[in-house]
Design a protein that fits this description.
CATH architecture of the largest domain in chain A: Orthogonal Bundle
CATH class of the largest domain in chain A: Mainly Alpha
Radius of gyration of chain A: 22 Å
Number of helices of chain A: 12
Structural class of chain A: mainly alpha
Helix content of chain A: 55-70%
Order of helices and strands of chain A: HHHHHHHHHHHH
Distance between the termini of chain A: 50 Å
Oligomer: homodimer
Shape of chain A: flat
Largest interface: A-B, 82 and 82 residues
CATH superfamily of the largest domain in chain A: Tetracycline Repressor, domain 2
Number of strands of chain A: 0
CATH topology of the largest domain in chain A: Tetracycline Repressor, domain 2
Chain lengths: 241, 241
Amino acid sequence: MAAKDETSAGSVWLRPQRSRGGRPTLTTQQIVPAAIEILDTDGVEGLSMRTLAAKLGAGTASLYWHVANKDELLELALDDVQGEIAIPAVGEVGWRAAVGALAAGIRDIALRHPWMIGLAGVKPPIGPKAMRLNDVAAGMLAAAGFSGAAVSRISALLSAYAMGAAAAENSCRQGAAQPGQAAGQMRASIEAHWRSVAEQYPNLAHWRSENPSATFDQDTFLFGLDRILDGIAVWRDRAPG
Amino acid sequence: MAAKDETSAGSVWLRPQRSRGGRPTLTTQQIVPAAIEILDTDGVEGLSMRTLAAKLGAGTASLYWHVANKDELLELALDDVQGEIAIPAVGEVGWRAAVGALAAGIRDIALRHPWMIGLAGVKPPIGPKAMRLNDVAAGMLAAAGFSGAAVSRISALLSAYAMGAAAAENSCRQGAAQPGQAAGQMRASIEAHWRSVAEQYPNLAHWRSENPSATFDQDTFLFGLDRILDGIAVWRDRAPG
DNA sequence: CATTATCTCGAACGTCGTTCCATAGCTGGT
DNA sequence: ACCAGCTATGGAACGACGTTCGAGATAATG
């Protein structure tokens, strides 16, 4: 751990590069994907510096030459997965489909890497891949005819909804499938508990009686997305720009 | 730690109550608010079972009689703060204002207790306060004239957006004010870093040139909320219900 | 009063993130 | 060819953490 003194206590991204001399066997480009692999399998709690180093065949302390600490490693991993999102060009599909694909892409990534859901609301989104995503989204919205502050606000609206929807969907999944027991067992005890308290929640009970298996799923996401796109469309038609 | 065997490895909420006999000095009703106080001050990492017990004047191990583990304590705290959200009746203000107040209330709570942002996407939302909130929201939407699946979908849309917006706003704040350095110092180094990479992000650069201080703030939230409410309104007018 | 269940908590265990520092390898200057 | 100086490694240790154990204290029950 050196090379940190010039911009002390900043984010990873604000730090200058190092190079020249030495023995370059371990690199950040190896560490981050390995960390993501562990995160996808075991979650944030399953990632320890020791297991990560073991997976790379390196000593634990060696990691600290390449990343300042675990928090910074998580920041790097969080930024890295945001590079997986692909956004179609507006010309190919029309603005509504392109904008919808942006939101759907964000949701897909979040559900594929659930550990990032708890991280995205905490770590600042200033990594290169996150900025690239924002830049592409801004270009797409500009090409769709939006201008000025509308570009950033609509982009913010879509990504906020996509992340919130992924969070809701993921938390519902956590309740449905607890580890260490049969799949149906938890669901059964939830069902029993629900019946015992249903009378305390009359409105929920009424709705749930006509729709028993109620979770936040893809249909829920797509319904909300359509409402948002409708709202953007009427705003776009009302105030030109 | 007992009384867990009957419904082994379930959520807190599925566990029966205990009582009768013994020395009831420490209660869950004391523990959870104390934990929330620490969480508000120091975040999730600042909450340790030892400091919490010390704050309560109790031994560390005593906590484990009332909560199974730290995860369950966080679940209890997460549910508890959701009881702070107040929702106005539809008759008083009209459905659009009432629905908007629901989303704004969720955002307020999340920004007042930022630690819950990283938790809400991970812990299942089946606590009593969370269900009460859902129930009240469902009743509000039903009173507003929505029916059937629309009630749950619109409620899900609003809370997903509110949480996502709070997450985005909070993560922007994390980037702006890093602890342990002067407020302007981080902002200055971000600014310098931005200038050095601006040409890589032409669309962002163009937009940022007309709007230098760009973060997710209340105006961004309200703009998106208005678009969502517009979208719900046109859907409501189109398909009766 | 004896029994039984409830509740407290000092002490200990294993794991974690992190640091220290001795050491190894590469590069450039002479 | 050689050494100086940087880059990089990693064994060992530290302190803090979540959690468990089990002995003890307290109050209701029969």
